[in-house]
Amino acid sequence: MTDGPLPTYRIATIPGDGVGPDVVGAARRVLEAAATSFGFGFDWFEITAGGIGIDTYGVAIRAEDVGAAGAADAILLGAVGGPRWDDPNAAVRPEQALFALRGGLELFANLRPVRVHPSLVPSSPLRPELLEGVDLLIVRELTSGLYFGRPSEERATADGRVAIDTLWYTEAEIRRVVRLAFELARDRRGKLTSVDKANVLATSRLWRKVVEEERPAFPEVEVGHQLVDSCAMLLVKQPAAFDVLVTENLFGDILSDEASVLAGSLGMLPSASLGERRTAHGRFGLYEPIHGSAPDIAGRDLANPLATILSAAMLLRWSLGQEPAARAIEDAVGLTLDDGYRTRDLVPTATDAGGLRVVGTAGMTDAVIARLGGGPAGQRPAGTASGPDTADDEAMATIIAADTLLGLP
Questions:
Q1: Which end of the chain has fewer CB atoms within 10 angstroms, the N or the C?
Q2: What is the average pLDDT across 23-27?
Q3: Are 8-109+265-409 and 125-263 in the same CATH fold?
Q4: Domain-by-domain residue ranges, the chain?
Q5: What is the pLDDT of residues 371-405, one digit of tens each?
Q6: Active site residue 147
């Protein structure tokens, strides 16, 4: 054992709305179990933001809370928003908390890995042969584009109402995310696909120019350009052809949600939002599942926690430098799926759960923690059956539609 105090990391949690508290609570349990096994600790503090922030403070997130989050070693976020705050006339919206965190903390790059676990192939609507070898990473620019452009407003004119949103990118904003994508592609399989709409948009033509200007610095990386509409088609026709995709904010939002069908559910996809700032332990970032708040299943032990648990593994890897613990969590998730544990969104149909153990949020979290086990990563805990059990009647009667886990802007 190491002499002296254990390293302790200060983590801000933002549970948010809907299932956010459910899945953040699950990820915290897994992180604590990993910390016990690998010899470190956490100092947690919670921030109120999103719809609940509007209800509590009148704003989606307070400026002082953005500052407090930025002073942590990393941020773990659940989800924000819901029908209660969907009034199109509202001046304050839950999603403003995300924009404040991303913009205020300069978290310009969103990383969304998409892998298909072999046991989840039946959960995807694509043919099994299309899913073989799928392992891609979507790098989405996160702090500019339509979501941040000004003006963004509705106006009254003599001819009726008009609305305007501004698509804006600077060369520097494009270059920093493109350079990161090149670095990631170089360390993976050496293939980068830049996604744009250069045949129509001036911002996309600038984007393509910057990619070409960066290309000579990475001679080992094969570079291709793809229009966003054809890329959307190829993601379902030839998903294994992609390695790293880099694109602007709106396109990345849409394409990464589309890619979730490859993995079987939005409930499986983690993400990391990173900037250039480094702490004493790693690269500062915000970690969250890509799914939305799903308020219809909040607090009912129904939400799939795996995307948030896998986001927590990314937090360990990128921000805390705890690679062995990150791998152990990912291995434990894989073993849990191999052993047939499923939340309802991972069951192909309501009647196709034979041989699976259908569980809720707590049951899935318990299964992952059991497979961490305190022993070598990938070791199935003693007494765990190698095959799955059947689900109980109540769980089998519960159907969670995939559209309850909607991606957020």
A1: N
A2: 98
A3: yes
A4: 8-109+265-409, 125-263
A5: 996 544 445 544 444 444 433 333 333 333 333 33
A6: yes
Q: Which of 229, 237, 352, 392 is catalytic?
A: 229
Q: Would you call 393 a catalytic residue per the annotation?
A: no
**253 given a catalytic annotation:** yes
Q: What local confidence, expressed as pLDDT, does residue 405 receive?
A: 36
Burial of 382 (0-12, 13-18, 19+ CB in 10 A): exposed
Query: 125-263: what fold?
Result: Isopropylmalate Dehydrogenase (3.40.718)
Q: Which of 17, 253, 331, 339 is catalytic?
A: 253
Catalytic residue among 197, 287, 339, 345: 197
Please pick, among 22, 65, 147, 341, the residue that the annotation labels catalytic: 147
| Architecture of domain 8-109+265-409 in this structure | 3-Layer(aba) Sandwich (3.40)
